[in-house]
Amino acid sequence: MMIVNTRPKSLSNNLKKLAMDLGIEINNIHMSKINFIAPKEDSICKIQNIDSYKNIIFTSQNSVINGLKIIEDFHSINSLNNNFLTTGPSTSNKLLQKGVRSISPLEHSSKGILDLIRTNFPGKNLLFCGDNSNGFLQKSLNEDLDEIICYEVSYLPEEVKKIINIKEVLLIYNFGTFQFLIDHLDKAILENKTFIVASERIKKKLNKEHRGLEVYVSSGPSDKMMISMAKNFI
């Protein structure tokens, strides 16, 4: 069976390289694209007062890529004294490329970030996220968190047409992509696929009518872990 990469093109380079190094052929069907959102006045005010936040939080590679664009218009990133918190290795590595070291929880999730803040880093937080954020940290931290929505996810209906009724292994990194496929594909096509999802949360969000799909949870959300799981089915 073929492995299908559904990630945006801008986030697919590492996965493509891993597949090539492992001698695995993958079909790249980029189900969405990422658009930068320029900061509005209230976001600019938050950035100008960035020293008032103890923690700056990034929950995805996209939040790092687009969040840093905003921060660096006002500050030298290496001059900031805030704690930088990330959900896991991929996000941390994106920051490290800018020379910024970050702290990640053992549980690579928003819940892990919440536990880390409450245990070790209580204080005011600034979250960079997309318009597809699940809102977990916002609801959990309430007035102790401000957010800046720095990107939006646009799903691409024309790409769905490339998913045909054959046995394939699809890599799913977020529930939005999964829901988009469910909304646009016939049930017969969905039932002919094996889905590797990046977290148990994605699997649990499936509606009852779709819980019969063949869905397996990767041991982690990194490209390496996702493709390692997918190899078991090809």
How does this structure look, described?
- This protein is of the alpha/beta class and 234 residues long.
- 36% of the residues lie in helices and 22% in strands.
- It contains 11 helices and 10 strands.
- A 5-stranded parallel sheet has the order 2-1-8-9-10, sandwiched between helices. A 5-stranded mixed sheet has the order 3-7-6-4-5.
- β6 (125-130), α6 and β7 (145-155) form a beta-alpha-beta unit.
- α3 (61-71) packs parallel to α4 (89-96).
- It is elongated.
- The N and C termini lie close together (5 Å).
Q: What share of residues are in beta strands?
A: 15-25%
How big is the Rg?
Answer: 18 Å
Distance between the termini: 5 Å
Number of strands: 10
Mean pLDDT over the residues: 94
- Biggest sheet features: 5 strands, parallel
Count of helix runs: 11
Helix content: 25-40%
Question: What are its keywords?
Answer:
11 helices, alpha/beta, 22% strand, 5-stranded parallel β-sheet, 234 residues
List the helices and strands and how they pair.
Blueprint: E1 2-5, H1 13-22, E2 26-28, E3 32-36, H2 41-48, E4 55-58, H3 61-71, E5 83-86, H4 89-96, H5 110-120, E6 125-130, H6 136-141, E7 145-155, H7 157-160, E8 168-172, H8 175-184, H9 187-190, E9 193-197, H10 200-204, E10 214-217, H11 223-230
Parallel strand pairs: 1-2, 1-8, 4-5, 4-6, 6-7, 8-9, 9-10
Antiparallel strand pairs: 3-7
